[in-house]
Amino acid sequence: MKRIAAGITLLLLAIVGIGVTYVVQRSSAPYIAAEQRVIDSRKLLDMLATDTYDNQPLEQPLTLSDIALSHSTLVGGYRATRAGQPVAVLLRSQTQGYAGPIELLIAIDANGKLLGVKTLKQTETPALGGHIADWPNSWLAAFSGKSNTEPTDNGWALKKDQGQFDQIAGATITSRAAINAIHDALRYFDEHRAALLGVGP
């Protein structure tokens, strides 16, 4: 009889324990999810100074049209605002590198100047084109401040192609792909400025 009572007691304790665990997990899940979203957001938005925007850009993706560009394809876009005014647009761009697709996040300010570029995905050769994934990335940082027209179209190329930019050492194809995708994104911004910023034409 004592064994049965002890067994029932253990069973009840197990049920209570499972129930408490379930309730705790359910009640903390939204908080954990919110914290994870903040972490993910900062990882994607670390090209933007935190005091330059006050919305949650990733929670309000833009609807993009004409996404097939000359050398790349846009796979997403976001608008950063402060006090309701647009301060930057972030475009996710996919282009073909040496070993496979490269996905870049390209941040452009409201005036069409490049704020920064970050590699989100790539399968380039380690120690060569794979350096495009380094963060921070001194090679990608060299594009900051550039725009669709600064330099001119001819300048948006590698120096070995009579352009203005150095290449990642030993990674000509990767470098060309990134330069072309960045220029594509800046050109797209200029052509769709009003829609991207959410302002009148």
What can you see in these coordinates?
This protein is of the alpha+beta class and 201 residues long. The protein folds into two domains: 1-45; 50-197, no CATH class. 36% of the residues lie in helices and 19% in strands. It has a four-stranded antiparallel sheet. It is elongated. The model has no long low-confidence stretch (mean pLDDT 90).
Secondary structure: elements and pairs:
Layout: H1 2-45, E1 73-82, E2 85-96, E3 101-109, E4 114-121, H2 138-141, H3 172-191, H4 193-197
Antiparallel strand pairs: 1-2, 2-3, 3-4
Short description:
The protein has 201 residues and is α+β, with helices and mostly antiparallel strands.
Main sheet: strand order: 1-2-3-4
Question: What's the domain count?
Answer: 2
Sheet with most strands:
4 strands, antiparallel
Helix content: 25-40%
Shape: elongated
Q: With helices defined by DSSP (H or I, 4 residues minimum), what is the helix count?
A: 4
Q: Whole-number average pLDDT?
A: 90
Q: What structural category do the secondary elements indicate?
A: alpha+beta
Q: N-to-C SSE series?
A: HEEEEHHH
Alpha-carbon Rg, integer:
24 Å
**Beta strand count:** 4
As a percent range, the share of strand residues is 15-25%
Distance between the termini: 84 Å
Which regions contain 5 or more consecutive residues with pLDDT less than 50?
none
Features:
about 200 residues; alpha+beta; elongated
